C-alpha cells in the first residue's frame, strides 16, 4: 500500500477554538494540518495569516503544517509562513510572476514546495519546474470556499498528473507527491486514491462530523482497499 496521508482543512473547523480543533484532529489521526490562506484578491474570501499559523503550530505535534496560499502575490507570504512554522507551502502558478523563483524561496527555507492547479489550469505548467517540486496539489473544486462538491473530471486530471510524475520519477528516481483538495469524502476517497493521489485534504467531511477519529478511520479503511 502507498504511504497515504490525510490533511484535515481548518477552513471547516470552529474558528473560535482553532487550537483545540488542531489538537483534536491530530489526536484523531491526522497526518498533516491543511491551512487555507485566502486574501480576498486571488480568491473571493478571507481567512488567516502567518501569525495564526505560528500560534497553532504547537498544537500540531508531529503533524505537518500544510500551508495552501490562495494569495497574490505570493513571495512575501512565503517568507512569513516559512518563519511561522509551515512545513509544506503550496501556491498557485497564476499568482506568481516568477514561479521558479517562488519555488526556490520555499526550498531555500527548508520547506516542502508545491504548485496548486485549479480545475481548469493545464498540467503543462509543471513541466519546467519538476526538479523544484516536492508535491503537486490538484484542486477538485474552484478555490475559495469549503463544502463544495468534487468536480468529477478531476479524476482524469489526477491520472494525467500522476502519469507525468511517474515518468519524472522513472527518470530521476525522485517521487513527487500528489495531493487532492475539495469535496473529498469517505465515499470517494477510494477512487481518488486509485486515480493516483497520495494526500487527501478534507474539511467538511471531517470537521462536519462529531467524531473526527471515526471519519479518519473510515477514510483509512477505504484506502486499505487500493
Ligand atoms: O482550499 C479549499 C477551498 O478553497 C479546500 O481546502 C476546502 O476547504 C476543502 O473543503 P471541503 O471541500 O473538504 O469541505
TrEMBL record:
Enzyme type, top EC level: isomerase
Pathway: Carbohydrate degradation
The enzyme's E.C. designation: 5.1.3.1
Source organism, top-level taxon: Bacteria
Catalytic reactions on record: D-ribulose 5-phosphate = D-xylulose 5-phosphate
One Gene Ontology term of the molecular function aspect: metal ion binding
Protein name: Ribulose-phosphate 3-epimerase
Amino acid at each position: 500500500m502507498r504511504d497515504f496521508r490525510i490533511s484535515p482543512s481548518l477552513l471547516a473547523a470552529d474558528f473560535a477554538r482553532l487550537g483545540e480543533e488542531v489538537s483534536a484532529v491530530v489526536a484523531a489521526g491526522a497526518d498533516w494540518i491543511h491551512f487555507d490562506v485566502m486574501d480576498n484578491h486571488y480568491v473571493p474570501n478571507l481567512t488567516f495569516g502567518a501569525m495564526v499559523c505560528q500560534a497553532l503550530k504547537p498544537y500540531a505535534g508531529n503533524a505537518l503544517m500544510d500551508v495552501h496560499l490562495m494569495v497574490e502575490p505570493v513571495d512575501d507570504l512565503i517568507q512569513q509562513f516559512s518563519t511561522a512554522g509551515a512545513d509544506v507551502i503550496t501556491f498557485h502558478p497564476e499568482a506568481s510572476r516568477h514561479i521558479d523563483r517562488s519555488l526556490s524561496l520555499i526550498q531555500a527555507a527548508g520547506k516542502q514546495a508545491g504548485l496548486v492547479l485549479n480545475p481548469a489550469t493545464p498540467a503543462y505548467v509543471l513541466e519546467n519546474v519538476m526538479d523544484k517540486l516536492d508535491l503537486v496539489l490538484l484542486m477538485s473544486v474552484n478555490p475559495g470556499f469549503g463544502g463544495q462538491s468534487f468536480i468529477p473530471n478531476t479524476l482524469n486530471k489526477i491520472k494525467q498528473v500522476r502519469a507525468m510524475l511517474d515518468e519524472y520519477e522513472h527518470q530521476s528516481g525522485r517521487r513527487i507527491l500528489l495531493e487532492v483538495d475539495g469535496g473529498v469524502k469517505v465515499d470517494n476517497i477510494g477512487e481518488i486514491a486509485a486515480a493516483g493521489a497520495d494526500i487527501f485534504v478534507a474539511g467538511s467531511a471531517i470537521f462536519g462530523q462529531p467524531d473526527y477519529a471515526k471519519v479518519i478511520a473510515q477514510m483509512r479503511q477505504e484506502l486499505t482497499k487500493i
